[in-house]
């Protein structure tokens, strides 16, 4: 008789621990032996992705509400996942508006995005905003997984106190907040994220000890090979294949990180770049996306966030023919050439979202895929970067988890709080709350409860 495997089982060896992907034998472990095994007992995962500086809304918004028959130009990269896509128009972050605080829309946009709270205008250490929706989930469900949550980004938190018209840099650099005054610091180095997911080294391990341990280790898989062989012998045919595909994916991701490290080592004049951070922005996002998919597939965490860039980021995109900085060009002044360049960046960011969605859809979980048990919120705290407005935000919901009815464009009344969506998502994740941020109720019409 094939053995039931615990959802929390780990492959171990030489200071490394690899969580397992979903296997059929886990369903047997989760269900009482006297009952028929349910088709799926997978939990809902939530991923929040932030894109800075708003969007060209005329090229973002579908022409009609209802069924998504034709995607607009900016959203076209999501065509393979159109049936899993919801475009949510009309949502607003009122707490990103000034309310007497004057300029600083970029800082407020990021700070309010997941908190739906007004950030205190300060350039000092007396930060005050609110607990973000992802951290509400982490506080309620984080004890069920190895990691409470995972916060990732491509740009470091900005050092210094004053970044946007009197607002502290922490506001524009973070969307995830553990408490009203404490941002959940994001990690930008894929190697460190990889180690966090697949290492069980001592918590107090110093840098030199960690470096020595990594030098002894050929790879993650080499360290756990014996444990993997032992488990493989106890699995059925389908589970063996899934295990091998998963281990191959871990190996490939490790190789991509190592390749990025080698590429960075070749910097001119002996300059040292942060290890594991690819030169290419797109590759950076892809590697982080692969790590997110692995984290969800192994149930290492059930909630995560990813900032494609800090709010107000002035990253240039020469690979798109946009040598100007993103923030600079987002103030397009309605010049057609400038608007077209912003649209190129918008579509590029959406194409990276599509790749992450593809990674989730490619992973089998029970009789379904990981995407069937995920909801990905993608958007910005600014609508039009030229106007700095915070109503009718560019907001997407991708995935098939939580009873969501996808494949549609929904138009909500003006000034519908984005917090209504977050309050409803909390309920779908199993976290009971009567209110969140500036919510006025649950967001209606996008799924069954």
Architecture overview:
The chain is α/β, with parallel strands linked by helices. It folds into two domains: 46-188 and 281-449, 3-Layer(aba) Sandwich (Alkaline Phosphatase, subunit A), CATH 3.40.720.10; 193-276, no CATH class. Helices cover 34% and strands 15% of the residues. The chain contains 13 helices and 16 strands. It has helices at 24-30, 57-60, 105-113, 133-141, 169-173, 190-198, 207-216, 220-232, 237-265, 281-297, 326-330, 336-361, 418-428; strands at 10-13, 16-19, 45-50, 66-67, 85-92, 150-153, 177-179, 182-183, 303-307, 316-317, 322-325, 364-365, 368-369, 374-379, 395-398, 408-417. The strands form five sheets. The protein has an eight-stranded mixed beta sheet, with helices on both faces. Strand 12 (364-365) and strand 13 form a beta hairpin. Helix 6 runs parallel beside helix 10 (281-297) and helix 10 runs parallel beside helix 12 (336-361). The radius of gyration is 22 Å and the shape is globular.
Structural class: alpha/beta
* Helical segment count: 13
Following the backbone from N to C, one meets helices and strands in this order, namely EEHEHEEHHEHEEHHHHHEEEHHEEEEEH
Summarize model confidence as the mean pLDDT: 85
The main β sheet shows up as: 8 strands, mixed
How many separate structural domains?
A: 2
Unreliable segments of 5+ consecutive residues:
28-40, 265-274
Count of extended strands: 16
Strand content: 15-25%
Provide the gyration radius in Å: 22 Å
Order of strands across the main sheet: 4-16-5-15-14-3-9-6
Shape: globular
Beginning-to-end CA distance, first to last residue? 39 Å
CATH topology of the largest domain: Alkaline Phosphatase, subunit A
């Amino acid at each position: 008789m094939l053995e039931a495997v615990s959802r929390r089982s780990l492959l171990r060896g030489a200071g490394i621990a690899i969580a397992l992907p979903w296997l059929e034998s886990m369903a047997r472990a989760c269900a009482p032996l006297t009952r028929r095994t349910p088709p799926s007992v997978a939990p809902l995962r939530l991923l929040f992705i932030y894109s800075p500086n708003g969007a060209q809304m005329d090229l973002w918004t579908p022409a009609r509400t209802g069924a998504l028959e034709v995607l607009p130009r900016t959203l076209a990269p999501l065509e393979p996942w159109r049936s899993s896509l919801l475009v949510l128009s009309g949502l607003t972050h009122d707490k990103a508006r000034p309310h007497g605080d004057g300029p600083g829309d970029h800082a407020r946009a990021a700070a309010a995005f997941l908190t739906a709270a007004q950030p205190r205008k300060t350039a000092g250490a007396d930060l005050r905003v609110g607990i973000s929706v992802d951290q509400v989930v982490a506080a309620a469900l984080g004890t069920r997984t190895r990691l409470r949550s995972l916060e990732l980004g491509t740009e470091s938190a900005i050092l210094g106190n004053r970044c946007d018209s009197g607002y502290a840099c922490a506001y524009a650099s973070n969307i995830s907040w553990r408490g009203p005054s404490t941002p959940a610091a994001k990690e930008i180095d894929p190697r460190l994220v990889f180690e966090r997911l697949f290492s069980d080294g001592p918590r107090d391990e110093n840098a030199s000890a960690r470096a020595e341990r990594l030098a002894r280790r050929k790879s993650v898989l080499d360290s756990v090979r014996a444990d993997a062989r032992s488990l493989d012998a106890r699995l059925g045919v389908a589970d063996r294949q899934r295990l091998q595909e998963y281990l191959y994916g871990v190996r490939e991701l490790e190789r991509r990180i190592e390749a990025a490290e080698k590429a960075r080592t070749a910097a001119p004049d002996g300059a040292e770049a942060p290890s594991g951070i690819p030169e290419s922005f797109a590759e950076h996002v892809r590697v982080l996306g692969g790590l997110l998919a692995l984290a969800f597939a192994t149930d290492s965490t059930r909630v995560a966030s990813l900032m494609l860039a800090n709010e107000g980021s002035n990253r240039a995109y020469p690979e798109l023919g946009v040598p100007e900085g993103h923030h600079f060009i987002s103030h397009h002044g309605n010049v057609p050439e400038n608007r077209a360049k912003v649209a190129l960046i918008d579509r590029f960011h959406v194409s990276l979202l599509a790749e992450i969605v593809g990674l989730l859809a490619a992973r089998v979980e029970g009789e379904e895929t990981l995407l069937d048990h995920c909801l990905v919120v993608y958007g910005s705290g600014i609508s039009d970067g030229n106007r700095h407005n915070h109503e009718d935000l560019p907001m997407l919901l991708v995935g098939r988890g939580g009873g969501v009815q996808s494949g549609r464009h929904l138009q909500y009344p003006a000034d519908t709080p984005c917090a209504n969506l977050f309050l409803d998502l909390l309920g779908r994740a199993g976290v009971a709350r009567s209110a969140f941020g500036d919510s006025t109720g649950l967001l209606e019409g996008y799924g069954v409860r």
